[in-house]
Amino acid sequence: MSQTPKTTIRIDLGNGVRLGPGKAQLLELIAEHGSIRAAGAAIGMSYRRAWLLGDEINRMFQEPSIFTRHGGKSGGGAGLTDFGQELLSRYRRMEEESRNSIQEDLDWLAANTAPDFDVAGTTADTEDGAGDSA
Q1: Parallel, antiparallel or unpaired: strands 66-69 and 77-80
Q2: Does 42 have pLDDT greater than 50?
Q3: Strands 11-12 and 18-19
Q4: Average pLDDT of 28-50?
């Protein structure tokens, strides 16, 4: 049997911003590393890009998700606010509950996926013209 397909969740909020796997991963890595720079580096992202994404996350909600400490004798750093920890926890729970609710269908897809399908040379367009906007 093939590997189980992977699912991701992207939430389009009413204010026009999105919360998805990239932002959740950045939050998780900031919590783990205590640094925006180190979190970005862990996923091959420049410090500037990680900082801008963190700033966007902080402006998405009524409360900030990330706090920063300026350098000095004790050094700088970053971490998640209580709100940021709750946001990440709820996002991960939504991922898990979604995955669990469609597990039977994911298993069916895995069992019916062509094992030797070559993605090279194909296009993102589908029969219905929807395209793959992952």
Answers
A1: antiparallel
A2: yes
A3: antiparallel
A4: 96
